[in-house]
TrEMBL record, chain A:
Ranges where the Aspartate/ornithine carbamoyltransferase carbamoyl-P binding domain occurs: 5-147
GO MF terms, alphabetically ordered: amino acid binding; aspartate carbamoyltransferase activity
Any single Gene Ontology cellular-component annotation: cytosol
Identification of the protein by name: Aspartate carbamoyltransferase
Top-level taxon in the UniProt lineage: Bacteria
SUPFAM superfamilies (UniProt xref): Aspartate/ornithine carbamoyltransferase
Pfam families documented for this protein: OTCace (PF00185), OTCace_N (PF02729)
Oligomeric and partner information: Heterododecamer (2C3:3R2) of six catalytic PyrB chains organized as two trimers (C3), and six regulatory PyrI chains organized as three dimers (R2).
C-alpha cells in the first residue's frame, strides 16, 4: 500500500498511503504507552538525523522513534560540522551516504533542499521540514490526532490560522486535509496569506471570528518571526488582538471543536496560555505524543520498502 | 567542426539553392547569394561568378546571422565559466554572428581601460564578432555615472548596469541626461528591487506550493513605469532588456505611441518556458526575471509578432555546476543560450506563432538596427554575416555537447528542431556542421 522510497512531502502521497501510515501509527501509539517500548522494525539499521535548522522537539521525536524501533541513531549537529566550513549540502550528503545509512532525517532552511539531497543518496530520506515547503510528518501527526479525537479524518470543517505564508506546516496540512476531502478555511492577515492559495480549493478569511464559524478543528500556527524580513504585521499586541486564539474567538467554533498547535507556542502572541492548557479543548500534548508514533510508522514503512528494493536488486544480480 | 578564425581576405562564395530569409522585406524566396569581400554582393543571381567557390545549400534556410544582445562572458574574472573563445565557439555553432556582451563582469567594464582590454581579448579569441556594453555607473553601484564619453570613444555600444537596478532616480536621471547629449543608448532592467528582493519565482499558486520566495509580476511594471517616466523627462534613448509579463505591455505600447525613443527585448526562455518548468526545484530553470505564467508567455509571443517587443535574445548567463547544485533559493540565476537560441526560437515557428522573417527581425535585424550596426540585413552591401540552417532537423539536446564552458541549459534532454549547417562572419565560414 505504501510505495514511496522517500517521504519528501504529502504532495506525493495518495489517500490510501496516508491511511496506511495512520493505521500503523495507531498501533505504535499502543506500543509507546507500554513500559517496554521496543520493536525490532529497524533492527540493525542506521538512522542519521541532520538538522540544518535548530530544533529540539522534532529532533527528539525522530530520535526516540528510531531508538524505539531498534535503529542506531546518530544526531548530526550542524553547528559543529563541516557545513560551517563551507562544504556544500551535496558534499555533506555524499560523505554521509558513503557511511551507508539506511534512513536520513533532514531539516533544512531552504525549500527543496531535502528533495535535492534525496536525489543524491541511496537511502530513504525523510523530510523533517524544508524552508517553507513541506513538513509531512507534522501533517500526518495532526491527521492522526484529529482522527483519534473526532473519529474520522474526512468531511470535517478545519480552520488553519495565523502565519500561513511562512509555514511549511500549513502547506503540508492543506494538501493532506484536501486529499482527505475536508473543508479548509485559511485565516490570516492578508500580508501573511500566500499568493494564489485560493486556487487550492479552500476558503480565505481575514476576520478570525467569521473564519471560525462552526468549525470542528482549529489549527493555530506559530508566528515565524525568524523567517520574516520585517513589516508583515504592525505589532504583536495588535496581532494577538485580531488573530490570537482566546475563549471569546473560539466560541464561534463548534462547542466540541478541538484546538491544535504544532509548537513551540508563543503564548500571548497567537494563543491564549490558559486555552492552550485547557485539556477539554486543547490537544496540543496529544499532538506531541502522536508525533513519535507517526514517525515510527513512517520509518517502518520506508524501511520495508528499502528492504524490498534491496532484495529485488540482489535477486536481479543473482539472476 | 570549427574552422579557423576569419583572417585575411575572404573568398568569393556562391551559395546556391537557398531559402533566403529577408526580415526587412518580410519574404522567403528560393535562390542564390553571392558573397564577395566580406559583403553580400548579390541576391538572386543566376550563375556563379568566375572563380567563386560554389556551396550547394540544398534548399536549407539562409538568414542574417543572429545579433545576440545581452550575453554574459566570464572575462574578466570568471574565465572558468566562459571565455571569449568558448563563447565565440558556442555562438558560431548556434548561428550567432555578433555577440553584444554585458558589462557585469568582475571587475565591471566601467573604464575605457577595461573596455580596451576586453575588446582586444575578444578580437584575438572569438570567431564571431563581439561588441561590449559598458556599465552605466561606476562599479555598477548606482551612485556615480561612468565616463560615458570616453567609453563611447573606446567602442562601447551601449550602457547598462545589467540586472542591477539603479535605485536612486536622481543618479539615473543625470546619467540619462548626460547619455542623451552624446546620443548613447541606455539599457534598463525594469524591476522594482524592493519588491523583488530575495525572490526566485513569480508569485502565484505554484510558488506558494513549492514554498519559494516570490515576486509579483507588477514589480516589473513598476520598474518600467519609473524608467519610462525618466525617459520622458530626459529624452534619452532607452531599451528595456527584458519585458516578461503582460502587465508591462500597455505601458510599453503607450510610451512608443507617445514617441519616446524606447525599444524592448525578451529572453527566448520566457518565450518557450513557463513557471511550471521549475518542477521539483530544477535550478537550471532559475532565471532573472523568474519564469512567468503561461498567459504571460503567450502574451510575449504576441508582442514579438506585433513588433511591440523588438528583440529576442538568449541572455546567455554561464554558471558552473557548483553554483547550480544548491537549494533553489541559494542557486545562481541564469542559463546559457548562445547555442540553443536558434532551435528554441524555431519552436515558435513550428508552432505557427511566428514566421521565419518575423523571427529574424527580432533575432538579427532589430538588435543591429537599434545598436547602429550594419549587420542583420539580407541586402546587397550588407556584411556577409549569415547562418545556413535546416529548420526541420530533429535532435535531442545533450548539454555536454554544448561548446560553452558552462552547461547550465534548461533544454537538457529536450526535443528540438533546427540544426545550424554553416555560420559565416564577414564572408568567412566560422562553423560548418560535420557532414
Amino acid at each position: 500500500m505504501f510505495r514511496a522510497r522517500h517521504l519528501l512531502g504529502i504532495e506525493h502521497l495518495s489517500p490510501q498511503e496516508i491511511l496506511a501510515v495512520l493505521d500503523l501509527a495507531d498501533r505504535y501509539v499502543d506500543l509507546n504507552r507500554r513500559t517496554v517500548k521496543q520493536s525490532d522494525a529497524l533492527a540493525g539499521m542506521t538512522q542519521i538525523n541532520m538538522f540544518f535548522e535548530n530544533s529540539t522537539r522534532t529532533q527528539a521525536s525522530f530520535e526516540l522513534a528510531g531508538k524505539r524501533l531498534g535503529a542506531d541513531v546518530m544526531n548530526m549537529s550542524v553547528a559543529q560540522s563541516s557545513v560551517k566550513k563551507g562544504e556544500t549540502l551535496i558534499d555533506t550528503a555524499m560523505t554521509l551516504n558513503a557511511m551507508h545509512p539506511d534512513l536520513l532525517v533532514v531539516r533544512h532552511g531552504s525549500s527543496g533542499a531535502v528533495n535535492l539531497l534525496a536525489s543524491k543518496v541511496n537511502c530513504a530520506v525523510l523530510n523533517a521540514g524544508d524552508g517553507r515547503h513541506e513538513h509531512p510528518t507534522q501533517a500526518l501527526l495532526d491527521a492522526l490526532t484529529i482522527r483519534r479525537a473526532k473519529g474520522r479524518i474526512q468531511r470535517l470543517s478545519i480552520a488553519i490560522c495565523g502565519d500561513i505564508a511562512h509555514s511549511r506546516v500549513a502547506r503540508s496540512n492543506l494538501i493532506l486535509l484536501g486529499k482527505m476531502e475536508n473543508r479548509i478555511r485559511l485565516i490570516a492577515p492578508p500580508t501573511l496569506m500566500p499568493a494564489g492559495v485560493g486556487e487550492f480549493g479552500c476558503e480565505l478569511f481575514d476576520d478570525m471570528c467569521k473564519g471560525l464559524e462552526g468549525v470542528d478543528v482549529v489549527m493555530m500556527l506559530r508566528l515565524q518571526r525568524e523567517r520574516m524580513d520585517g513589516g508583515f504585521i504592525p505589532s504583536e499586541r495588535e496581532y494577538y488582538h485580531r488573530y490570537g486564539l482566546d475563549a471569546e474567538k473560539l466560541a464561534h467554533a463548534k462547542p466540541d471543536a478541538i484546538v491544535m498547535h504544532p509548537g513551540p507556542m508563543n503564548r500571548g502572541v497567537e494563543i491564549d496560555g490558559e486555552l492552550a492548557d485547557d485539556i477539554n479543548r486543547s490537544v496540543i500534548q496529544e499532538q506531541v505524543e502522536m508525533g513519535v508514533a507517526v514517525r515510527m510508522a513512517c520509518m517502518d514503512l520506508l524501511a520495508r520498502n528499502l528492504r524490498a528494493d534491496r532484495g529485488a536488486k540482489a535477486a536481479g544480480v543473482m539472476a | 567542426m570549427l574552422l579557423s578564425l576569419h583572417k585575411g581576405t575572404a573568398m568569393t562564395l556562391f551559395l546556391e539553392n537557398a531559402r533566403i530569409i529577408d526580415p526587412e522585406g518580410d519574404t522567403v524566396t528560393t535562390g542564390n547569394v553571392i558573397i564577395d569581400a566580406g559583403q553580400i554582393a548579390a541576391i538572386g543571381a543566376a550563375s556563379a561568378p568566375k572563380g567563386a567557390q560554389v556551396i550547394d545549400c540544398g534548399g536549407a534556410c539562409l538568414a542574417p546571422g543572429i545579433v545576440d544582445w545581452g550575453v554574459k562572458i566570464g572575462e574578466p574574472g570568471e574565465r572558468h565559466k566562459e571565455s571569449f573563445r568558448s563563447a565565440g565557439l558556442a555562438a558560431a555553432a548556434g548561428g550567432v554572428t555578433t555577440i553584444i556582451a554585458r558589462p557585469d563582469t568582475t571587475p565591471a567594464i566601467d573604464t575605457p581601460e577595461v573596455l580596451e582590454f576586453v575588446t582586444r581579448r575578444a578580437a584575438e579569441a572569438s570567431p564571431v564578432r563581439i561588441r561590449h556594453m559598458a556599465a552605466l555607473t561606476k562599479g555598477r553601484d548606482g551612485r556615480e555615472m561612468t565616463e560615458i564619453g570616453f567609453l563611447l570613444d573606446a567602442g562601447a555600444i551601449a550602457f547598462t548596469d545589467a540586472a542591477r537596478v539603479t535605485t536612486d532616480a536622481k543618479v539615473l536621471s543625470r546619467a540619462l541626461t548626460y547619455a542623451r547629449s552624446l546620443g548613447a543608448l541606455v539599457i534598463g532592467h525594469p524591476q522594482e528591487p524592493g519588491l523583488s528582493k530575495g525572490a526566485s519565482a513569480t508569485s502565484g499558486k505554484f510558488a506558494s506550493l513549492r514554498g519559494i520566495p516570490a515576486v509579483h509580476p507588477m514589480a516589473e511594471r513598476i520598474g518600467l513605469d519609473r524608467d519610462l517616466g525618466l525617459i520622458e523627462m530626459t529624452g534619452a534613448r532607452y531599451h528595456a532588456d527584458q519585458i516578461t509579463t503582460a502587465r508591462s505591455l500597455p505601458a510599453l505600447e503607450r510610451a512608443k505611441a507617445n514617441g519616446l525613443d524606447v525599444t524592448a527585448g525578451v529572453s527566448i526562455h520566457h518565450l518557450t518556458l513557463n513557471e511550471f518548468d521549475v518542477g521539483d526545484y530544477r535550478t537550471f530553470f532559475k532565471l532573472t526575471p523568474p519564469l512567468r505564467s503561461e498567459d504571460d508567455r503567450l502574451a510575449m509571443i504576441d508582442a514579438v509578432a506585433s513588433g511591440l517587443i523588438d528583440v529576442i535574445g538568449s541572455f546567455h548567463t554561464p554558471a558552473d555546476e557548483e553554483s547550480k547544485r544548491l537549494p533553489f533559493e541559494d542557486a545562481a540565476s541564469g542559463a546559457v543560450g548562445l547555442q540553443t537560441l536558434l532551435p528554441a526560437s524555431l519552436r515558435l515557428f513550428h508552432a505557427g506563432q511566428l514566421t521565419l522573417p518575423q523571427l529574424f527581425r527580432a533575432l538579427s535585424l532589430n538588435p543591429a538596427r537599434r545598436l547602429g550596426l550594419p549587420q542583420g540585413r539580407m541586402a546587397e552591401g550588407a556584411p556577409a554575416d549569415l547562418v545556413l540552417f535546416n529548420p526541420d532537423t530533429p535532435f535531442m539536446l545533450d548539454r555536454f555537447t554544448l561548446a560553452s564552458k558552462s552547461k547550465n541549459t534548461p533544454f537538457d534532454g529536450a526535443r528540438m528542431e533546427g540544426k545550424v549547417l554553416s555560420t559565416f562572419v564577414a564572408g568567412h565560414q566560422v562553423y560548418g556542421a560535420a557532414s
